[in-house]
Amino acid sequence: MQEDKRNKLIEESMKLFSEKGFHETSIQEIVQNSGVSKGAFYLYFDSKDDLLVAIFDYYTAVIIEKLQHVNRGTNDPFQRMQDQVAEIFKLFRDHKEYLLVHFRDKIHLGNKLDDVIIRVHKQSYEWVRESLLSIYGEELVPYMADIAINFDGIMAGYFKWIAIYDFVFDPDQLAEATVRKIDTIVKQLLVEKPEPIFDPSTIEGLNLTSESSNVENILAKLKQYLQKMKLPKGKKEHLSEVISVMKEEFQKEEPKAIIINSMLEQIQPYSELDFWRKQLENILQK
What we know:
Layout: H1 2-20, H2 27-34, H3 38-44, H4 48-71, H5 77-94, H6 96-104, H7 111-136, H8 144-165, H9 171-192, H10 200-204, H11 211-228, H12 233-250, H13 257-267, H14 274-285
Helix pairs in contact: 1-2, 1-4, 1-6, 4-5, 4-7, 5-6, 5-7, 5-9, 6-8, 7-8, 8-9, 11-12, 11-14, 12-13, 13-14
């Protein structure tokens, strides 16, 4: 019930932000449209700025959930990526208010939102990297940053025009066009083999404020997503305890890899949690 109220506040605020703008929308308007009291608002968010950060997190979680669902649908990596891109376009078609806020409002909330945006960017890069490696192999590694920038530019261009001009579009058709464009660029690079423009290690080595805060954030996301999963109560409680054990271990001065790996093995059967599990595995290997 509490999570429903929080999500309602997020969804209604997005509609208001898209109609009136972030700065022109008051907390009073948000709570009225959401059917909750102002006191309830402050149970979930410290401020309107804090709400905006939650919005970025909320939609990121929705996107990841969609991508993971598609990930289980086919063994063809090219088709899988195309289907995943289609899901992203469908999401933004159905939640155009997110695009409107993103492209029409100039919002800067300092380090807190900047960290969220950097994290989302890195998650996006890791997804693109994993998808392209599964299609083209290790030969593409030196060009990974360049290709990711091209991919991001194509997607952002479509999003911007859709938001501003309210275009009607077919998500599947747009996804096919996007992936085909990237395929053309990749094949040209692999034939011509020019000097890469950007070094992918710059992105892959990017951390947020610290490794410990990154771990805490990943574990928080794991727990948040776990609550949404349809599992028997006993299994859900067990997995929640697994996450708590990992949190305690990571907080130690010298975390024991054998304990954390043991906990990660218990999460492995649940493919919905793969995204965060792999991030923790990467941190553990450093």
